[in-house]
UniProtKB/TrEMBL annotation:
Stored InterPro entries: Calcineurin-like_PHP (IPR004843), CNP_phosphodiesterase-III (IPR050884), Metallo-depent_PP-like (IPR029052)
Gene3D superfamilies in the record: 3.60.21.10
One GO molecular-function entry: metal ion binding
Entry keyword set: Hydrolase, Iron, Metal-binding
Record-stated family: Belongs to the cyclic nucleotide phosphodiesterase class-III family.
Pfam families named in the record: Metallophos
Residue span, Calcineurin-like phosphoesterase domain: 303-557
Stretches assigned to coiled coil: none
Official protein name in the record: 3',5'-cyclic adenosine monophosphate phosphodiesterase CpdA
Enzyme Commission code: 3.1.4.53
Hydrolase is among the record's keywords: yes
Entry annotated with the keyword Hydrolase: yes
Domain of life: Bacteria
Length: 624
């Protein structure tokens, strides 16, 4: 059993050294009180109890303001005549009673009169020779600075912030070999706060798995962490409410959100959050969220690149248009830096900062030009290079697939056509090349009656993908050789989509090669097949299942459109020379704050040898 508890001080379980603070609070402050600034659940009450014990109850008294009538400004019996007063919970006199929902939406409503009276009381106590130390949150400090003027001195705040535990301090926490073993496995963010440290230990050591005869696995630690976060955010503790909303002002919350999204807030805000232990700084100077519960509330965004129509083969788009195909012309083109345009994407990807790189890549078909093994093998090798550029994400496990594929009509092997539409042989080459990778894709080589659906779930990210094969009936016979293939998602696949369980992932993304219907583009095409022949049926199923996004390729045109609650994103080609538009791709960014998700889809187009953003669309989802 772990005996550390914030409100029940016990010297034997002390982790910090309070000697310097004990000396300070026995001298007069510049203002009317010494502020002891700390986040909720950081140990402020424990600190006041420790100071009281060090000075002695004859000279110091800990007073909880929400348990006395502060308006009357009468000290309780145990505090009268003491030279050092240690005030706790000043929010009861600084703020009006405010419902939690209002605090979360608008913040605390300042009780200006009550706050001024409290500052004046502290001033009178100072005049009588009484020294006041006030444990308070950043929101309470902000309120007192607003109403107290010169009586509330920022000089008194220096070095009196209750920050995170140091490595040496946290190592004093475990007492037994079992506890030491668990401590060594904990992620660093759990070691910085004594309350969180104690709760993690309590939870693990009170469970059957917590006997720790063997070290816990990484998955065990992750599972226990999620369970502890769930308990902390329950009605018993309401940790997130107290630390994020009760404790901080909106600017602090905005700074935490910016850090999670790899933006740089003001240094003043960062310094405050750093002192409180809610942020930490890497060796490179980058800020990271330093509290595991807040990090779970503000996870890093998930970046998904949607690329399409790579077209490995004779119609590959090149960066130099060599109209002279002579030996000399080819030499000149090579000297001018001629290469596949899709390689510009690889080069651009490699030079991005890690936090700007995608975590997942979706390929919506037409990897090859004609479904030949050599073209598909070249495509696979190129995608291996893409995979090597992807960024890590705390919500992704090492064995999670990072690339997701669907075949396109050009990935059908027309040379293997052997009779009526719907044969399996035209899909063998695609299956042969990509089976053995970790990348999921629809197994069109299997009959629709027996194949498993290609659904990929990333529960920790709140994401799920339905990978749908639309060139099922491509390559009908040689009479129509070279004709655009009909796009159709088999009814069995749509029924699988309707019957699958999607409730655990609020953001659901369908991927298919063909668009639902013909899409607008610069070019005018007269074709037999451009969209799905059963696009309406698929759209209805996606809407019924609450899908957020549909990603497609095929048209070689970047395209964003909202159809009700469904956002449709068509990707431009990254590799074909047959396009009237700039080459490019789409980027999908999924951000989460608590249970609220925001999805942003943005088209990128090639400019020079780089890529620049163009159109953008956003949707929001709330997890239920």
């Amino acid at each position: 059993m772990i005996f550390w508890w914030p409100s029940k001080y016990h010297a034997d379980y002390e982790l910090r050294n309070w000697d310097a603070l004990v000396q300070t609070v026995q001298t007069m402050p510049h203002g009317v009180f010494w502020p002891l600034l700390g986040a909720r659940r950081s140990g402020k009450t424990w600190a006041l109890n420790a100071i009281e014990a060090a000075i002695g109850p004859a000279n110091a008294a800990h007073v909880t303001l929400d348990q006395i009538d502060a308006k009357k400004q009468e000290l309780p019996e145990h505090a009268r005549g003491r030279t050092v007063l240690l005030f706790d919970e000043p929010g009861s006199v600084l703020f009006h009673d405010t419902a939690p929902e209002q605090v979360m939406n608008k913040g605390w409503e300042l009780n200006v009169e009550g706050a001024k009276q409290f500052v004046e009381w502290c001033q009178r106590l100072k005049h009588t020779g009484t020294i006041v130390t006030l444990a308070l949150t950043p929101a309470e400090w902000h309120a007192l600075r607003e109403v107290g003027g010169a009586l509330v001195s920022s000089k008194d705040l220096e070095y009196r912030r209750l920050g995170p535990l140091s490595a040496a301090q946290s190592q004093r926490f475990p007492r037994t070999p079992t506890q030491h073993q668990l401590f060594e496995q904990l992620p660093p963010t759990w070691r910085r706060n004594p309350f969180l440290l104690a709760e993690f230990f309590r939870h693990v050591l009170d469970t059957p798995e917590g006997n720790l005869r063997n070290p816990l696995s990484r998955d065990d630690i992750h599972k226990f962490g999620k369970e502890v976060i769930g308990e902390l955010n329950s009605g018993k503790y309401d940790y997130l409410y107290h630390v994020l909303y009760d404790c901080l002002i909106p600017e602090h919350r905005g700074a935490l959100r910016m850090v999670a999204e790899h933006e740089r807030p003001s240094e003043d805000l960062c310094r405050m959050l750093l002192h409180l232990g809610l942020l930490m700084q890497s060796d490179s100077g980058e800020y990271e969220i330093g509290d595991p519960v807040l990090a779970d509330h503000y996870p890093p965004p998930v970046r998904i690149h949607h690329i399409s129509d790579l077209h490995f083969g004779p119609k590959t788009a090149l960066s130099v248009d060599a109209k002279d195909n002579s030996v000399q012309g080819r030499k000149l083109a090579k000297a001018a830096g001629q290469g596949p345009i899709r390689d510009d994407y690889l080069d651009w990807l490699a030079q991005l900062e890690t936090h700007q790189r995608p975590h997942l890549v979706v390929v919506s078909g037409d990897i090859a030009e004609a479904g030949q093994d050599d073209q598909l093998e070249a495509g696979r090798a190129w995608l291996d290079r893409v995979a090597a550029c992807l960024a890590p994400h705390p919500g992704l496990d090492p064995d999670d697939p990072r690339l997701l594929l669907v075949p396109g009509n050009h990935d059908v092997d027309w040379t293997a056509v052997d009779g009526p539409a719907g044969g399996r042989r035209p899909h063998l080459a695609f299956a042969r090349v990509f089976t053995g990778t970790s990348w999921p894709f629809p197994q069109l080589v299997e009959p629709p009656e027996t194949r498993e659906p290609a659904h990929q779930h990333y529960r920790s990210l709140g994401l799920a993908f339905a990978l749908l094969g639309s060139p099922e009936y491509g390559g009908a016979n040689h009479e129509h050789y070279g004709r655009l293939d009909p796009g159709l998602v088999h009814d069995r696949d749509i029924q699988h989509l309707r019957s699958a369980v999607w409730k655990h992932e609020p953001i659901r993304i369908a991927v298919v090669h063909h668009p639902l219907a013909q899409v607008p583009s610069i070019a005018t095409e007269i074709t037999s097949y451009s969209g799905l022949t059963n696009g309406g049926q698929l759209q209805a199923a996606l809407e019924e299942q609450g899908f957020t996004l549909l990603l497609h390729g095929h048209t070689h045109a970047a395209y964003l459109e909202r159809k009700g609650e469904l956002l449709i994103a068509g990707a431009g080609t990254l590799g074909s020379r047959e396009t009237y538009e700039r080459h490019g791709f789409n980027e999908i960014i999924v951000t989460r704050e608590g249970q609220r998700y925001k999805v942003q889809a943005q088209t990128y187009e090639r400019k020079g040898g780089s890529f620049a953003p163009r159109a953008v669309e956003q949707l929001e989802r709330v997890a239920t």
